[in-house]
Design goal:
16 helices; 0% strand; mainly alpha; disordered N terminus
Length: 446
């Protein structure tokens, strides 16, 4: 089969089989985050701005360890492609223990320093108080968040994206119910939303660990933690940790700049970023499929299959991003009222959503290529590539902060999101250059 041959129908079906459940699972979380934003937004602008600060900090605290999912997917898929399921699941067990340890340490740090962490963003005193309350409670759910990442990575590597879907729908569905009861029924305010999230995350984590244990016993894989192997799993994930830290730094700096532009701009940015995350998760379904398929194919020594699948998924990513972006841009005047009654925030958010929508074709391209290289285990290049992209982005976003509030929150949030879209373009250029070469296509279980 030549690199220009069309991907066989069976392979396209395999992409769809993995991507559709991954898509539904991935959009479940941002959908419920959107619901959380709507629930909190109707409490007031300070609460919504506080949620924006706390969410940025919390997602960063857990998100820097996303290598627990991405790295595990690649390793497990390679072992699966090489025909060694026992080693595949054993590698997943190592990831689980690593996630549990990292989660406990991170939760303690975030809970103790919730106030200073929230203060870093420089929001108003009212928003800071709300952010600190939410962050301190939500820290209790961090261990479960990291365990969910690790076990989800194992299941994806085993070519199972359906089980994480079921866990996401049930868990986040329970989250909405709990949040409504706690926030409005018991009148706990933003604290109620945090408690509802912690309870739902813990339940999801326990359910997924149960599934992993069943798979491990069926394959006679070891269950006890092996310190050397757990440390090895950590070292393997280090390049992806650097990559993620650079990405999270980008998002944090953007939120920091939004906070300097006032509560209205920050509140609009919070919802816009939540919408962007929803779209990112939707497009990331192809990236998840890319990770699993690339890892398994390279484990089996099939470089040609990787190249063909990558071409198909990149095209689907770009067209899918374009379609989603046009929908969001078309609904820019309707969506804001779902999240806030404040006219100023509504106007600013509507303008931001147009920019968000216009950038989605680029996002689709970026996410698919990122997934392919993660699945190939090209962590070192991804780490340095993301650091370089962050460095290139800094002058743009710092120029926005230096300009300061213009007196028009709508103008400020548009400029902010134009800068962030430029970051995605820079990232896409680098990933495209790397993907054109062959150095990243190393075969074998490694």
């Amino acid at each position: 089969m030549s690199p220009t041959s069309p991907l066989p129908t069976s392979h396209r079906r395999e992409i769809v089989r993995l991507a559709v459940p991954a898509f539904l699972a991935l959009i479940a979380e941002p959908l419920f985050l959107l619901a959380d934003s709507a629930i909190i937004g109707h409490l007031g602008t300070a609460e919504l701005a506080g949620l924006g600060v706390a969410s940025a900090a919390l997602v960063t605290a857990a998100g820097i360890f996303v290598f627990l999912a991405y790295g595990t997917t690649s390793i497990v898929a390679r072992h699966l492609g090489a025909g060694d399921e026992r080693s595949a699941v054993s590698a997943g067990i190592d990831g689980f223990w690593l996630a549990l340890g990292l989660g406990a340490v991170t939760a303690a740090a975030v809970a103790v320093w919730a106030g200073p962490i929230s203060a870093v963003f420089g929001s108003s005193p009212a928003a800071h108080e709300q952010a600190t309350t939410y962050l301190r409670i939500s820290a209790l759910g961090i261990p479960a968040m990291l365990v969910i990442l690790a076990v989800t990575g194992v299941l994806r590597g085993l070519q199972d994206t359906t089980t994480p879907l079921v866990a996401s729908v049930v868990g986040f569905g329970a989250n909405i119910v709990l949040n409504v009861v706690f926030v409005y029924g018991l009148h706990w305010g933003i604290a109620g939303s945090a408690w509802g999230t912690v309870i739902a995350q813990t339940g999801m984590g326990l359910a997924l660990v149960t599934v992993l244990l069943v798979k491990a016993r069926a394959r006679h894989a070891r269950l006890r933690p092996h310190p050397a192997r757990v440390l090895a799993a950590g070292r393997t994930g280090l390049p992806l940790l650097v990559r993620t830290l650079a990405l999270r730094a980008t998002l944090l700096v953007t939120t920091w700049v939004a906070a300097s532009l006032g509560d209205v701009t920050l509140a609009a940015h919070q919802v816009a970023m939540t919408v962007w995350s929803f779209l990112a998760f939707a497009l990331d379904a192809l990236a998840i499929a890319a990770q699993a398929i690339t890892g398994r194919a390279l484990g089996a020594g099939d470089r040609g299959g990787v190249r063909l699948a990558m071409g198909t998924m990149v095209r689907w990513g770009v067209w899918g991003g374009l379609a989603l972006g046009l929908v969001i841009a078309g609904l820019h005047s309707v969506v804001p009222a779902l999240f806030t009654p404040d006219p100023a925030v509504q106007e600013a958010l509507g303008a931001a959503l147009v920019v968000v929508g216009l950038g989605q074709a680029v996002a689709g391209y970026v996410f698919v290529l990122d997934g392919v290289l993660i699945g190939a285990g090209d962590g070192r290049w991804l780490a340095w590539g993301m650091v370089a992209t962050f460095v290139a982005y800094l002058p743009l976003i710092l120029a926005v902060r230096s300009a300061g509030p213009s007196g028009s929150p709508t103008r400020d949030v548009v400029v902010l999101w134009a800068a962030f879209t430029a970051f995605m373009v820079i990232r896409g250029v680098g990933l495209g250059w790397r993907a054109r070469g062959d150095d990243w296509m190393v075969v074998g279980a490694r």
